[in-house]
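Entry 14. Structure prediction run on the chain below.
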Amino acid sequence: MQCTAFATADEYHLGNLCHDLTSYGYVEITSLPRDAANVLVIGTENAAKEYDPGMIFFFREGSVVFWNVEEKTMKKIMQVLERHEIQPYEVALVHWENEEINYRRGEGQSKLHRGEILLNSDLDIDEVILQKFAFSNALCLSVKLAIWESSLDNFVESIQSIPEILKSRKKVKLSHADVMQKIGELFALRHCINLSSDLLITPDFYWDRENLEELYDKTCQFLSINRRVKVMNEKLQHCMELTDLMRNHLNEKRALRLEWMIVILITIEVMFELARVVF
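Output returned:
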């Protein structure tokens, strides 16, 4: 069986999405604890394989994880989801940066081993939902991070010619407004990664649920979340230094221009005074 995760937007309207999906015959699953906030769990009878019921986790942060859902149903749900997205991403990027991982039900403790998820077949449905939530939470972070990695790669590509231009003493064709826009893009990306997401810390939900925390942490390790975040922050720091250099360079040019304007104005005033004295 397969578990597939997508990051499709900055955020979802979960309330409206729930109402829309239930009107199509899907069933909301409400067995998650209250502190598992900002997530909507939906069940579907259209499972890809009969060994496990189809289930979908929608995270408010703009990610969705499908468990054993047939492809036709997945496409229908994605179409419904489009109506409830805030700042949606490009469709091609969404499908390119997805995560797919196989899973099975079987004997033994639930775990992630060699790229495959094992769910204990002896667990009751509520415990299975909790464990799927933990795995989904980590997969949600991975696909979201992949979108931000793509955004940073595009940003790096847009400024990669600047060092060579500076090295060859050519004029950089960027205005002060352009540079400030670049700085704003960097700060927005840095805010998403370090402040508005759970990439740097384990969510509070897992603090008193050690077994779920272990599943979450192991999945994050498998997906190299911490290493990827570290690499992204190093790239962001380098980009910040470059944009700061450009801003300082433009500020110096502006200051020099103002100095010359003052000199010219003083010169004109002196000439007028001389002309008045002479004539």
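The CA atoms of residues 206 and 213 lie 5 Å apart.
Filed with the rest of this week's runs.
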